[in-house]
Each structure stands twice: as C-alpha cells, then as structure tokens.
Amino acid sequence: MKKLLKLSAVALMAAGVALPTMVAAQEEFSAIMITDIGGVDDKSFNQSAWEGLTAWGEEHGKERGVSGYDYLQSNSDSDFVTNINTALSSNFDIIFGIGFKLEPAINDMAQQYPDRHFAIVDAVVDQPNVASLNFKDHEAAFLAGVAAALTTETDHLGFVGGVEGVVIDRFEAGFVAGAEAINPDIEISVEYAGSFGDASRGKQIAAAMYANDADIIFHASGDTGNGVFSEAKDLVTNDPSRNLWVIGVDRDQAEEGIVTVDGEERHLTLTSTLKQVGDAVKQFAEQTEADGFTSGNTVYGLADGGVELTEGQLTEEVKEAIEDYRQQIVNGEIEVPETPE
C-alpha cells in the first residue's frame, strides 16, 4: 500500500457546476491563501495547504510576499472577508480559500470582483472566476474505519469532528461504514467540538471517550485534534499498560503521536488519512501560472491518489485487508456513503 501518491490531473465535474472557464496566463504570477481557523501550524489541513503553496513558490523561484506567495491567517470567521480584501488590494493573481467555512466569503467576493480569480478547497462555488478543489474524504475514512475495527481490543471506537457540515460528514460516514464492514455490532462514539481550533475541547472529548473504554479515536478536527493526541499521550504516560491509539487526518500525523514512556519511545498514531491538499494547491498554482485560470470543480479520490491512508503502525494482516477494501472502492464494488445515517 502506498503512503503518498501524486495527484492525477483528471478532473471530475460535479453535477450542476458550470463548464470550465479559461483565462490566459500572465507573465508575472503570485498566489496567496486564506487559512481556515487553526493557522498554518495546525499540523493538519491548513499546514498541508501552506506546505504545497510554499513548495510551488520555492520551485519556481518566488519569494514570500506580494510578488510571490504568502498566506493570511484567519483567527475567526469574521477575518475571512477582511483577509480576502487584503489579498485583493495586494493584487495577488490567485486567492485560495482553505476550507468550506470560507465558501460564503469567496462566493460573495467573486461576484463583487468578477475579473479576479479565486480557488476554494472543500467547497463548490459555482462562479466563472472560482475553481473548486474537493476530495473524497469518505473513501480514506472508510479505510481508517477498517483499520480501527481490525485493531481495537475493546470493540469501542471514537470519532471527534471539528464543525458539523458536509465535509466532516464525509469523514464520519466513511469511518463508521468502514468499521461496520468489519464488525456490524461495533460501538462508535461520535462527538463534535464545534471548532477546528480548540485543542482543550478536543482533549476533554477524548478523555471522556477513553474513560468509556474506546481505545481508538479518529479525529477530523484540525487543531482541535491536537488535544486528542495530548490526552492519549497523557493517559499512556500515566498508565503504560493501556493500548490507546489516535488516527490522524489530512496529513501524516505520526509525529504527533510519539511519547516517551519509561525511557522508550511509543507511537500512538495508528494511521492517518491523507488528503493531498498541498499537492492540489501546488498543482493548481502551477497549471494556472503556465496555462491560465480554469474554473470548475475538480474532485480527487483514492483512484488518483487525492486521498489515501498511511501504513503507520498497522500490522501486515490489517494492511492486506485495507488494500483489498481499497481496490473494491476504486473498482466501484463498494460505494462509500458521504452522509451519516
């Protein structure tokens, strides 16, 4: 099973989305991203996007700043429009909105500035000057559910979501479906923190789940998930006999699960679902600089490496089972649900 795969250029046009609009490339090209809550050091979604934009800039001889690439951090929802206006006044050629929470702001500003170009991750904005970059998160989450159900010793799993909505619905639905494919009677506790940037709330939710005998928690909650990792590490440090795991999200979060117990290093990240946001941002910036802007909706999944699952601490037996389910999904034999039941 491959940990990381290069994104394919194949675009799947979502129903109801207008046909792509193309605009010629320019000699000078700059790009900026507006973060969702959590910042570029959230060890998850925003960080992955920033790493991709940074890679694009460095590979093309750009410098950080208005003539090259940059980011603006959003500390609350009220920052979205302010940050977009700042990006517009700085004359960046493409403005990336990272996360579905920016959808209303991107949609409104795209209509106000029809000659400017935008891209949004994890949402669809049907405007001729907006490109939408989306992912089949439920497919990778299904594999995470399979991994968790085959690894648990208590038959009790946990799912911690950030903010409820169609995107995190996909993570929850896929995870539950994957786990129940292995064990229809497995217990799965689901709770939402109401934030992507509240690590203390994530730690509190995780503490309650672990106390109720859940031994594996999958989080899809951005920076909030750092609290899940923190709680798992604290519990194992206090009682090394406990076998507790966390499943990371969006990028390989193996490092977040490392803890030293009695002088020995333990790894509590069972696996991580990968969402190649960085690759998508990098690829779109490259294509736009070289060939001009193209609107429309591009959807990435298991088949083209847009989402995946790391090998992490999975056993060979579990990895074999995951590869089998992976192929069934890619071949269309399994249709993974996108909404929780």
UniProtKB/TrEMBL annotation:
GO cellular component terms, semicolon-separated: plasma membrane
Protein origin, superkingdom: Bacteria
Pfam entry (one): Bmp
Keywords annotated in UniProt: Cell membrane, Lipoprotein, Membrane, Signal
Signal peptide: 1-25
Protein topology in the membrane: Lipid-anchor
Domain ABC transporter substrate-binding protein PnrA-like: 30-338
Cell compartments where the protein resides: Cell membrane
Main location per the UniProt record: membrane
Entry-linked InterPro entries: BMP_lipoprotein, Peripla_BP_I, PnrA-like
Family: Belongs to the BMP lipoprotein family.
Name this polypeptide is given: BMP family protein
Organism: Ruoffia halotolerans
